[in-house]
Structures are given as structure tokens and as C-alpha cells.
Amino acid sequence: MVSTRRSLLxxxxxxxxxxxxxxxxxxxxxxxxxxPRPIPVAAPxxxxxxxxxxxxxxxxxxxxxxxxxQGDPALMARIVADCGMVVGESSFKWExxxxxxxxxxxxxxxxxxxFAAKNRMRVRGHTLVWHxxxxxxxxxxxxxxxxxxxxxxxxxxxxxxxxGKIAHWDVANEVLHPEDKQPLGLRAxxxxxxxxxxxxxxxxxxxxxxxxxxxxxxxEFGVDYALPWQEKRRVAMLTLLQTLLxxxxxxxxxxxxxxxxxxxxxxxQRGLARFVADIAGMGLKVIVTELDVxxxxxxxxxxxxxEAVAEHARAWLDAVLPHPAVLGVLTWGLxxxxxxxxxxxxxxxxxxxxxxxxDAELRPKPLWSTIAGAFDAAQAR
Length: 381
Ligand code: XIL
What we know:
Elements: H1 5-23, H2 49-54, E1 59-64, H3 66-70, H4 73-82, E2 85-88, H5 94-97, H6 107-118, E3 122-129, H7 136-141, H8 147-161, E4 168-173, H9 190-195, H10 198-210, E5 215-220, H11 228-246, E6 253-256, E7 259-261, H12 269-281, E8 285-294, H13 302-320, E9 326-331, H14 341-344, H15 366-377
Parallel strand pairs: 1-2, 1-9, 2-3, 3-4, 4-5, 5-6, 6-8, 7-8, 8-9
Helix pairs in contact: 1-4, 8-10, 12-13, 13-15
Bound molecules: (3S,4R)-3-hydroxy-2-oxopiperidin-4-yl beta-D-xylopyranoside.
(3S,4R)-3-hydroxy-2-oxopiperidin-4-yl beta-D-xylopyranoside binds at residues 89-90, 173, 257, 290, 340.
């Protein structure tokens, strides 16, 4: 990574001062007229999101795209200002860490580790076992005979490399897909096909052995709404957790990705709160791991879009955050400058999505205030 802590903080201060001047409607000769509607801003000296969270024993963080970050000191400064934790958006995935058999490449991941350490941020590892972002050689080599050694050897190497430095590992990601009609609602991944459901046992045990201090997380999406396919996934998740725990698999937490959709009308707060309570009732922690709110189903008008996105996240967070088992919240990127949603779910009108706490100019949006407000309202834990 490129910048020193001092230059990061200097960048942060001047950017925030400029924001404050705009938010207060300050006019100087020749400047543009005040904005018609005050944008909620983090004034200089106002605590960032992680500081707001930390007051309640929670944390806030974001995914970072290390390649984008290197060329963007202003974004780096905002990440430092708002985040107590970062997670590599792609730099800790299998294709990044072991692009060739027998060849590990930790350069991108280590750069993120240095950026985090320099700025006193913790790091989540994402992710050890997934059906995406695998190098082609892996799936070509993976058989019932080779699978166990491939999986446990990889995890031993990766978790060993970062031992003692990673706060949480997403040991397994997106393992459910009841439509595949596999045991326990599991997704028909190459791992399931090669090893059966015990691939999860192997992965969690290997992670526990190689880095016992990193919280071991099962990370999942699509459990947010009262939609039939999502209800099925919630039931499958609870059954899977019970089964894993009965088998002595050392899973310690569930990651709720929280890829939300502002146009979705079936948010059932009581059902969602019960789901979190059921997970916690098994002795597990809960982390909100990838929060963003897609807006491709909303009209173009920016102020009302931003309000709808914030309101939708508020309703979701109101259901989830009160539970004391919840440790913290991460968003999948901090600024609308770049979001995976623009390629995944492009808006029909071609406009960029506005799914994240900061706009593309790094100004806090209503979603920023919603997250800050949710931390303020949370009970200390
Ligand atoms: C996404 C990244 O954001 C993209 O840049 C990449 O092309 C594909 O992966 N759930 C996850 C993340 O667990 O790893 C995904 O990240 C987004 C959905």
C-alpha cells in the first residue's frame, strides 16, 4: 500500500472540512450556492462509524478492493475514518491466494494486512471455501481421492500464514442452496460432490487447528425476507447449524451478508429477529458481513432513492442489531464510487446504483446516518 498514516489522516481532515463547509451551506465569493437539502455529514471531529459502534462494544467495517484503494488516497482516508475492520473484497479468495498448484501468492493480501495494521484496523478473512473465485486448476484436480488433502492443506497454509492476525475467518461461504436437493439443503458445489457434507467438518477443524484465535464463521446470503425461497434457507441454516454443532464442528458464528433490496416489500422484522435469536440460542455469534442495498427497482430521483435505501436498511438493522449476540456490521464497500452491484444488477436506466454509506464523492448519505443511528440506539454489550 502506498500511503503513510500521516498523509492519510491529513487527507481525511481536509476532505471532512470541505464536507462540513458544504453541509453548513457556507458561501464564499464565487462558490456554488448552498445545497437545497442538508446532506447529513460527519463534521470534523465527529466520530466515524466505528467509533459510534465501539461506544456500544460493536464494530463497523467495510470490504475494500485493494486494487482500487492503492490509487485512491481520499477513499483510503475515509476507510480509516469510518472503519475498525476491513475485509478484502477479492484478495483473500482462493484464486488470489493459490493461483497455481503448489504456488501461494500472499502479496495482495499482505498489503491489505499492512494497511490495516498501520491504521489499527482489524481484518476479516474472506473466504476459505466457496464455489466461486476458485482457480481453474482446483476444480480440475478436485476428486473424492484428492479433496481432503487439497482442502486441509490449503487451509493449513493460508490460516497458518495469517495466524494470530485475522479477527474472523469466513471458513465457508454460501453453502446453502435447497433447490439443489442435496442433504441438509447444501449447495451442489464441487466440494460437496467430492467429499459430501463432511467437507464442512474438515474445513472448520482445519481452520481451528491452524489459527485457533480467529473466529470461525459460516457466511450466508438470502435469509432476509419472508419470501418462500428465503424462508427455506433460514430453516436450512438452523438445521445445518444444529447438525454441525452436534457433530462437534467448531463453527462459532454466522455471517449474515445482508445484500438487501430496497424494492423488496417482504421484510418481516419479527421473523428476522427470531432467526437471529435462534442462531444465538445455539451459542453462536452473529456478524453482519456484507451490507449493501440495491436500488435497481427504484426510480432515478436521487434524494428519494437515498432515503428509501436508508429506510430499508434501518428496518433490517432494527430487527437484527438489538440482539446481544451481534458483534458488528460491515458494508460491502464504503462508497458508491464502486460497487459490485453495478455489474451484478445493473439499473435499467443505466445510472449507477447508490447502495453504500458514502456517495461517489465520499460524502455521507442517509444510509451513513442510519448506520450511525443504529449504533447509537444499540444497547451496550
Ligand atoms: C464479489 C465481489 O464484490 C466482486 O468484485 C467479485 O467479482 C465477485 O465477488 N457475496 C460474497 C462476496 O461473499 O465474496 C461477493 O463479492 C459478493 C457476494
